[in-house]
Amino acid sequence: MAPKVQAFTKIIEADPAVDSVMSSMGSGMFGSRNSANFFVRLKDLSERSATATEVANRLSMKTSHFPGGQMFLMAAQDLHIGGRSANASYQYSLQADDLGLLRTWTPKVQAALAAIPQLNSVDSDSQTGGQEVVIQIDRDRATRLGVNVNMLDTMLNNAFSQRQIATLYHTLNQYHVVMTLADSYTRDPAILQELYVVNDDGDRVPLSAFSSFVGGNAPLSVAHQGQSATSTVAFNLNDGVSLEQAQALIKNAMAKIGLPSSVQAGFQGTAKAYEELTATMPWLIVAALAAIYIVLGVLYESYVHPLTILSTLPSAGVGALLLLLLTNTQLTVIALIGIILLIGIVKKNAIMMIDFALDAERRLGMTPQQAIVQACLIRFRPIMMTTLAAFFGALPLALGSGGDADLRSPLGLAIAGGLALSQLLTLFTTPVVYLWLDSLSRATRRQWQRLRHAGS
Where are the transmembrane segments (predicted)? Predict the structure, then answer.
C-alpha cells in the first residue's frame, strides 16, 4: 500500500496549484488497510487560476488510469447539508429491505452513472471484498442426531462473537472475561470442520455431520437508513456542468435501466437539498409575494399600488441570473437564497417612492403625476444611498478570494446583479407603472359607478 500512496503523492505534488500534501494509510472511510486519505492544500488564489473543484477534476484525470488503485477527490466545503460520508461531493442513494437486491442493483446504478460523460469520480460505498462462509444446516439430519438449533447458535456465538461470560472484580478495578477462539483458529474457514455441538444426550456431534459450508463474497459493512439497508453512489460534476443538468441526466439513466419499485432511489445531501428547493421555489415565491401584497395593501389601503411595488421584482431576478450567466457561475442553493433575499431588498425602492406619492396625493392634494415626480426627486438620494450600501456590502461576497470563495461567491453575485439592474430600471419603470395602474384604477371606478347608476 505504501508504494501506491507515494506514487499518488508524487502525482498530486506535481500539479502547479498544489501547495502541500498529507496522507494517512488505514484511515479511509471504512478504516481498512487497503485505503488511504489524502489532504491536499492548494496555493492561494492569487497564485493559481483554477478553483478547488477544477483542480480536483484535473487530478482525477491524471490518476484515473493508475494501476492497482483508484483515487477520488472532492473540494472540501465549509457547509455540509446532510448526506452520508462519501468519496465525492454529491450522492445518490439506494434503499431496499432485501440486502441481496441492493447488492445486485448498486453496481448497475454505479455503471449507469459512470457512463454519463458529464460526471466523474463515480464511486460506491458498497465494498464487497470481504469473505463469508454460509452454513447450510440439514435440519432433518440434525434432528436425528439430537442437535438443537439453539445449542448450535450458542456454540457459534461463543466461538466467534467474543461474548462476555464473566466479570472479575478487584479492589481498584474490574475486568471483563471474554470468550473467543484464538486468532490462529479464526483465519481459516477450515476450522468449521473441527467444531462440535453438544446434543440433547450430552454427546459431541461434529458440525460437519449435519451441515455444509459455502464460501462467497460479502460486503465489508452494511449501512442503514431508517430500517432499510442502503448504499450510496457518489459523483462529482465536470467543469461547466450544473447540478440541475446532472440530476436530469441521472433520472434519465435510472429510467433506462429499469430500477425496480422495491429499490428506492434518491439524491442525498446537497443534491437532495437543491432538488427540494427547486421544487418548492415557485410556491415559496408565490407565498412571499402574497404576504407582501397583503401587508402593503393594508398599509396603503389600496388594492392597486402593492402591484406597483411588486413590479420591481422581475428586474432583480433577471439581473441576478444575468450576472451569474456572465460570470459562468452555477445556480446553486446559495445563489437561490440570494435571489430570495432580493425580494426583500429590491422592493424598498418602490416603497420609498409610492409611500411619498400617496401621502402627497392624500395630504397635499397633488395629482398623481405631480406626486410621483416629486417622489422621484426627493427620494432619489435615499434610494441611491440604501442601494449602494447593499451593493457594496455584497461585493466582498462576490469578489472574495478566500478558501471558501466558491461557496460565498454565488450569493454575492446574485445580490449585486439583482440590485444593479433593478436600480437602473425601477427609477424609470416605477413611475410609469404607478401612473398606469392609477389611471386604470380610476377608469375602473368610473365604469363601476356608471353600472351602479344604470342599474338603479
Answer: 281-300, 333-358, 378-399, 411-437
